[in-house]
Amino acid sequence: MISLWRGGVLLLLVLGAGGGAHAAEEPASAVVEENPHDWLQRMVMASQQLNYDGIFVYQYDHRLDAMQVIHAAERKGERERLFSLTGPRREILRNNDQVVCILGDQEVVHVNRSRPRSGFPAPFPGDTARLEKYYRFELGPAARVAGLDCRKVVVRPRDAYRYGRKVCIHVDTGLMLSSELTGVDGRPIERMMFTSVRFPDRIGEERLLPALSDAGFSWKREPDMPEGGQGRSREDSRWKVVRVPAGFELMDHRWHRLSAHEPGVEHWVYSDGLASVSVYIEKAGQEEDSYQGATHRGALNAWGTTVAGHYVTVVGEVPMQTVELIGKSVQARLQ
Questions:
Q1: What pTM value is reported for the model?
Q2: Tens digit of each residue's pLDDT (9 = 90 or more) over 29-70
Q3: What are the domain boundaries of the chain?
Q4: Which of 1, 13, 18, 106 is the most buried (most CB within 10 A)?
Q5: CA–CA separation, 275 vs 265, rounded Å?
Q6: How far apart are CA 165 and CA 142, in angstroms?
């Protein structure tokens, strides 16, 4: 079985899963839309316009974790603090595109740059109508979450290569109050739900500072420009991904390292506009002769193999058959 921690894969996914909201503008107005795309667009806009401070629960694999998120928007951009209330003491701090992850149980601090995202906790594009070829969008009934009125929107996949989603959007502000990731059969794989949330006019500076002391912790910083990364394109790579499900397109391709002292990893990101899959390729260690298998954590699936002396790991919040399909198609180019 592949460890999700290999090469910092799980850390990268945790850092890529965060998001935020913005308070420099007025919150989205409480207009009653009857089109699911309008509701989702309000949700995306609200995630860029609101201050909020809330506690939510996250359920997956028969586990239930509690976390708190504090988000503030300033003229210079967004800041956010996300920290665990159960289990290991961990915090994630975001200042625009810089992300600091403090792992109290491991006494490690990771610093890296995040890709743009469209909102905590589940990313949606601003224009969901263009996804109709691969998903069906339905407006569900009214509901209540954390004592607040919300409206459900259901997103159903049209094939078995992607998950569905159910979200409940706050009527007054547009903030997403709950979400479910569902399989093709409609059954929930993981759930997130606010148990309390407030929308203060201002978030104090002290609320955005970490409670964990990093004294004595080891620091791992992602270099701004990995060695050999500048000027290299997909055509420079010795690798090619031959097959991806319909609708998935290459969104990002780069070489990077989690620290200046670690070997480089080639990273490919494919997305259909809602779901995304990462392909990591790194040189295999001499001590490991084989590297193949599958594992999962909630909706997160990972599949790995060894190709031409390199580890290939495919990870994403998509069904296992999707990461396996992509992983088996990775080939070394003929030199």
A1: 0.80
A2: 445 568 999 999 999 888 878 999 999 999 988 899 999 999
A3: 223-332
A4: 18
A5: 22
A6: 16
